[in-house]
Amino acid sequence: MDYDKVCQQIMLLDPNMRSARVINNRGHLVAGGMKKGMMPLENEKQDEMMFMEIALRVRMRHEFDKEFGQVSFSLSYREKVIIYSFPLRDENVLLVSSSIEADFGKIPFKILKIIEKFP
Description:
Blueprint: H1 3-11, E1 17-23, E2 29-34, H2 44-61, H3 65-68, E3 74-77, E4 82-87, E5 93-98, H4 107-117
Antiparallel strand pairs: 1-2, 1-5, 3-4, 4-5
């Protein structure tokens, strides 16, 4: 999967997108980043901690796949930002953020369509 292309397409989905990144299953950044001109809400060290926590959470969710089916995405609606995580086929995680003005009822499903296009 061409992660940089995926991240670029996601950033174009909506003007409220803040970032699109791919992290590996240990929480290390593989591709993507913040939208140009966008100020991060956290510092680099906090990014690393958040990436590790999300990677762990995604791995832990697999424990319930048999009972509930596989997770397509998870969403965290916070005061300042919406964070979406998408487990990828290769154990990496697509991590996307948007402002709270974004249409979180539609964006994740548009992202799923983008992900499905890439082998």
